[in-house]
Write a structure and sequence with these properties.
Layout lengths: L11 H8 L5 E3 L7 H10 L26 E3 L8 H10 L2 E3 L2 H7 L2 H4 L2
Parallel strand pairs: 1-2, 2-3
């Protein structure tokens, strides 16, 4: 899945919100099809377009926008990819988790295998 075929790629609202200085959050639920690709897209592409991208993070002195979400909700599946965990840490992307929701809606084998 590339940025042109991702369901969020056609949403100009994220780009507009980023331009207005708002922080972006996206919901990446557990145990969904293509979850790692979705988390990667949200982490690296959400709220950006080719003209207004800054891959250097929050501390860059350029006047361009940061690429990707500032927070990912329910991104627990990212832990199965060392590359995603490293990227999340390097970008200082916040993660929120809701263990009670996972236990209520998924089997233990589904979550911890």
């Amino acid at each position: 899945m590339n940025s042109r075929t991702h369901p969020l790629s056609s949403s100009l609202s994220f780009i507009r919100e980023r331009k207005e200085g708002l922080r972006l959050t996206s919901h990446c639920d557990v145990a969904q099809p293509d979850t790692l690709k979705n988390i990667e897209y949200v982490l690296t592409q959400l709220g950006s377009n080719e003209e207004h991208v800054d891959d250097h993070g929050r501390d860059d002195e350029k006047k361009t926008m940061r690429r990707g979400a500032d927070r990912i909700d329910h991104g627990l599946d990212a832990t199965s990819s060392p590359e995603l965990v490293q990227a999340i840490a390097e970008r200082q992307t916040l993660m929120t988790l809701c263990p009670w929701a996972y236990v209520r809606h998924h089997t233990q084998d589904n979550l911890f295998t």
